[in-house]
Design a protein that fits this description.
single chain, 68 residues, mainly beta, 65% strand
Amino acid sequence: MQGDLTIAGNTNPVTLDLSVEDGAGETKVTGITKLQHSDFGVKPYSKMGALKVKDEVDIQVVVALPSA
């Protein structure tokens, strides 16, 4: 799936790889992508040089849809 994602007022196109699981009473759709903090103008978190977060992060979105 492709679309635009806005973080901290900055919008960029993103693509999510989707998977669909049919279960008892619901369908679960999961989307996964990787993005860079810096692409959205966000400085990766750092605490006094000892703790740092990488610029690239994994994003996962899960949506459960009730079966008809």
